[in-house]
Amino acid sequence: MTDGAGDGNMDGPGGGVAVEPLGDWRRTHLLGDLSAELDGEEVVVGGWIHETRNLGGLCFVVLRDRSGRVQVTLVKRKDGPLFSRLASLSRESVVMVCGVVQASEKAGMGFEIRPSGVKVLSVAEAPLPLGVADVVGADMDTRLDNRFLDLRKPEVSAIFKIRSTILEGVRDALRREGFVEVHTPKIVATATEGGTSLFPMKYFDRPAFLNQSPQLYKQILMASGLDRVMEIGPAFRAEEHDTSRHLNEFTSIDIEMSFADEEDAMGMLEKAIEGAREMVWRENQKELDLLGISLPEQKPPYPRITYDECVEMVSSRGLDMEWGEDLSMEATRIVAEEMEGFYFITRWPTEEKPFYAMPFEDRPEVCRAFDLNYREKEVTSGAQRIHDPVLLEKRIRDQGLDPRGFEFYLRAFRYGVPPHAGWGLGAERITMIFTQADNIRECVLFPRDRHRLVP
Ligand code: ATP
Ligand code: MG
Fold first, then answer.
1. Which has fewest Cβ within 10 Å: 62, 162, 290, 312?
2. Is the CB of 379 under 6 A from ligand 1?
């Protein structure tokens, strides 16, 4: 390994500080892997300059990477040119340091790095548009405009590490249950549920839309014999709401399973969420600690309440509610007070749910649909679906839609399709619950909402 402090220097953009190529320098450790036990060991690390305390003869540079922070201690008298190069660098510049780990009572962590070589890889301009080391919080817009800087804060990136584990945990639980992971088209010709919540686009010379849900394709796949499918992918909703739980592009975790009813789908949802919870518990203690939170302790089965019971509960608390209408925010709040944590609302009015929800044979005004809520927030909607093509076509008409637009879908029900059920779980909504985020924008890297299209 060559010492970067001399050869191959190029002029960098930041105040004439020389920037060097990576060359053959490679990290031997992440900062979080270092400890006083490595006393005397030679290491190569890389990271951002978190902060610098220059006391004249002595300089402490705190380096930060995704795993943690470490103090690099420079002594002017001994380190000469190295001292002046490192001590003068702007905050958030990227460097590599090679040196020796030295156990030290005086260093906050019980050890420090005494450097023998430094490579300046990138110089940060000053002032920063968003402070990384600052304790005072910036507003959401400034944070999102500078998301790359915002994510350098460990408590911000912790959310995305947990989100990654949640998806892995769900995927793992479902694969163990025989689900095949699929990807269905996001550019489509037909609205899943009709309505206005679609982003139109041009597909060469034809009109098309960004798909709001993989629903129709998941169901077509039930006619394919794949039996159980799951998809984790984007869903687009052109709804103009501006809330802390809606995005215009979100990630949907979807399943569809054959020879199954809504109870089977609810059971599978419980397995998926519990799989995620256990995996986060095993793998993300560090991130949970950083956020100062613990996971919900509730285990399945989650309590169930019917829509009828909700109406009764809400009415008995003096709130006016007609049977058949959706639960208002106020009504949901009342139910949430009684139910706590995760709970299912089952047996919804057929007219309240999409056309593909299966009505009960003996009470067709109610269907085999369910929502899973966490407190006042909906996390999942699901149902047993209609698999009889005649009834399906009738329901499409009943909801004021044109069956001709659904021909590609209806075909799949005419040549043998098993009864099936499934659900859609919002990845950001479940991440909000596990990380106790109060705004969904905390749980998506680059939110698309009513106002944000950049970055
Ligand atoms: P809500 O009533 O909360 O607006 P919805 O009933 O319109 O949701 P569904 O069509 O049932 O949503 O979608 C299934 C799941 O996808 C929801 O339970 C939720 O977790 C997630 N989801 C739906 N819309 C959004 C959105 N705009 N932003 C983020 N997640 C969403
Ligand atoms: Mg819903």
1. 312
2. yes
